[in-house]
Amino acid sequence: MKWLRLGTGMVLILSLILLSACNAPVFLSNEFQTTGTYPSKPITGVIPWDQGGTTDSIARTISPLVEKELGQSIVLTNKPGATGSIGTHYVYEQEPDGTHLLFSAENPALYGVLDISALGFDDFEPIALYARTMATVVVPADSKYKTLDDLLQDAKARPGKIKMGSTGPGGLPHVVSSMINGAAGTRFNLIPFPGDGPALTALLGGHIDATVSALSAAINNQKAGKVRILAVINDQPVPAIPDVPTVTQSLPQLEQHLPWGPFFGVWVKKGTPEPIKAKLAKAFAKAEETPKFQKALRNIGAIPMNLHGKEAERYWRDWQSTTAWLIYEGGEAKVHPAKLNIPKKPSRSDQER
Amino acid sequence: MAWFEYLLIPFTDPKLFFIAAFGTFAGFIIGALPGLSVTMAATLLVSLSYTWDTIPAIVLIIGVFFGGVYGGSRSAILLNIPGTPSSLAATFDGYPLAQRGESGLAIGYATVYSVLGGLLGIAVLATASPLISSIALSFAPRDYFLMMLLGILVVGSVGSKDLPKSIFVAGLGMIIGLVGMDSLTGVDRFTFGSVELKGGINFIACMLGLFGLAEVLHQLRHLKKNRMNDISGQFLPSCAQFLRFLPLSIRTSAIGVLIGSLPGAGGEIASLMAYDHAKRTVKKPSRPFGKGAYEGVLAPDTANMSAIGGALIPMLTLGIPGDAVTAVILGGLMIQGLTPGPLLIQSSPDLFGVIIGAGIISAVFVFIWGLMGLSTFARIVLIPKHVLLPIIAFLTVVGAYAIRNSVIDVYWMVIFGVIGYFMKQYRFPTGPMVLGMILGPMMEGHFRRAIMIEQGSLLGLTTSLFTHPISFLLTFAIVFTLVTQTPWYVRSKAKLFKQHQRPAKIE
Considering the domain boundaries, does residue B505 fall inside one? Predict the structure, then answer.
């Protein structure tokens, strides 16, 4: 029976070797793959978030449309964990030859300030930013707060007592409450939940007083009479809910930060050849314009962006500057934004002080 | 009940009927293969469905959901590897049963009661969704914490007779669960600066190692032992047996629906709690628990199947996923333009009716596929070890890789396989470790939220335990569980009733 033990061990080791070989970056692929024939083999699309989330849903909607444009298949894999940094790191480890795409949300822009990863969007180049979503401040339908001003007044009168749902540092509720705190001088008791779904659940059960939720989830629950939307975090009213006031009606100082919200797009590793990037950008731009994609975005309450190249670069850098400094002023930054060469927007300090 | 007229659509449309049957079969295979998860299958199918109509797509996913949850118990019983996390509890008594040559009967029990649990779950979904979802909503973070605490007490049932060892191992599991980024503040814990460790150590990989690979290594050492020549020919429980366990299976189904309906707690916790419930309430099990009690097979299987109906409740009534699979379905429905939420049952009664209809068909097909080729499956335990063990070893490696497409998980699987081997060698139970890894991090998060809601005051938290009905009930259950374990209680009870409880003898 000795050979049996040996055999089992061999199989185990062999399969391990095989697997590590699968995982290793494909050597020489850069030399063999001339940019003219790109994409000559299937592309791997990495989604650094779990199945079923917004990032995942949008990526899975757009990739079949891009496949059609490129004439090559995109194999999507989820590599979730650590605020998306595991998947981001994985793509960074690959060759910059356009065979690995990162279908990400805004999070890597804040990895530096929150000390989540040494990597960030600086190590990647955006191919397309296709959508953004908006945040809303919601309370239960039977709440005593009828308007945002009610909530803010009470928060001022009882600092740190109002229970606000949060999704951890850098998340939607955290940044929005930092914005509001900076302008209104309020302080909330932020209760962190593993996502905005659980936070909304706790709100519906009356375990917290308020939360900041994505527009789509808030609208559905408002229509059913379960929650009241006190304000949208935007400078203009949203067509789907025209009666809901914008946050700037109560706090005009916030206008400098807006429009603000999560955004979604696709990135490649820095150093990817220009023709490959151009080809990808063109394919994504075409896919984004299809009525099918536009409709899917509307369905999940997202706003189409269709930004590419320099425009996309400018958008996320601007977003990063706003958010990083907001987090810093909220006292939650682990690394000073100036240390990361994140510029502060000039207008803000004059207005605030 | 506007949805009622749509209930029959999947039955009358041959295409939908076929899709549900096929989905159940595919789910069965996926669930039975360790590491391949229902979540993975659902994701793949949902993205396929972007080009399909909504109804066939959802029917397919429901089929896969049912088949997958059921399939997990197959490898748990035959190979001692839980095919899905929710079939962990099925290994406790299912595998000992298979070792006794009753693999066919163990599968038979699992199948019959899985169908029952699945149907009861669907029945609750159809009739009592609004009620259940309002109960689920009234669970505050502190109640979740209490429930997880109650779950941890299951350690007393799951482990071997050696309670200190079980507690030690569960504690170790909880510490391993702490590795990674703190979910509340993003602070690194035990990561040593490694990117891979930031995402934590995947408990499914550990489970595959502790159960699958460790079992292979263990059997390699004891090749001569446990050799079976034939298996028992009985596959289905008799009518009398079925009726005997019916009350228990209805209770465990109720546990499954309720826990499944809580967002963030799914089949894996439900099945463990159901196993614990069975062990505590069944006075005279068919065999001692852990040695091949039929009750220990059917309790977790009814619970994780009824948890499917439970998990669909918050998704359909609140637009909040009850577990990972429903999160995927939710994402898919939103892309399709259907907005699951409080209005769904009114605005799309067809969808609700079809889901229930598809659930019923899938449950029936679980029965058909489950019993098909049963005698062949049951003979897996007779396969010579020099063929079977390398196959299991291979499956654990592939399964570990498939969890997140990451080779790191394979390394963890191997490391925990070796750890599990030594644990078995020194008679440490492996179940409590996985239990600690699953429950520990959840318990921690809920506790911290609960105390933050009380402004950090421990006194406030303690008083709130007595002022809220659900919290009070759960606290009472915990205290009761703890007290009944003490020798003092057993003695005084014996004195009071003038009778001694004799543990059932091993056959």
Answer: no
Considering only CB atoms, B43 lies closest to which of A51, A163, A170, namely: A51
pLDDT digits (tens, 9 = 90+) for A61-107: 888 888 888 888 888 887 776 677 778 888 888 888 888 999 998 88
Q: What are phi and psi of A32, to 5 degrees?
A: -75, -30
- Please tell me the distance in Å from B193's CA to the nearest CA on chain A: 9
- Number of compact structural domains in chain B: 2
pLDDT at A109: 86
Residue-level pLDDT at A266: 93
Whether pLDDT at A318 is above 60: yes
- Name A190's bridge partners: A164
In this predicted structure, the answer to whether residue A197 has a pLDDT above a threshold of 70 is yes
Residue B506 domain-assigned (yes or no):
no
| Cβ–Cβ pairs < 8 A, chains A and B | 197
Residues in chain B predicted with pLDDT less than 50, given as ranges, are: 504-507
d(CA B376, CA B379): 5
Contact A4 B406 (CB under 8 A): no
Q: Is residue B339 assigned to a domain?
A: yes
Are B408 and B493 within one domain?
A: no
Instruction: Assess B137–A contact: CB distance below 8 Å, yes or no.
Output: yes
Residue A271, exposed/middle/buried by CB under 10 A (0-12, 13-18, 19+)? exposed
d(CA A228, CA A245): 12
Kindly list the structural domains of chain A, giving each domain's residue range(s) and its CATH number in brackets, ordered by start: 42-133+262-340 (3.40.190.150), 135-257 (3.40.190.10)
Answer yes or no: do B369 and B442 share one domain: yes
Q: Which domain holds residue B479?
A: 468-500
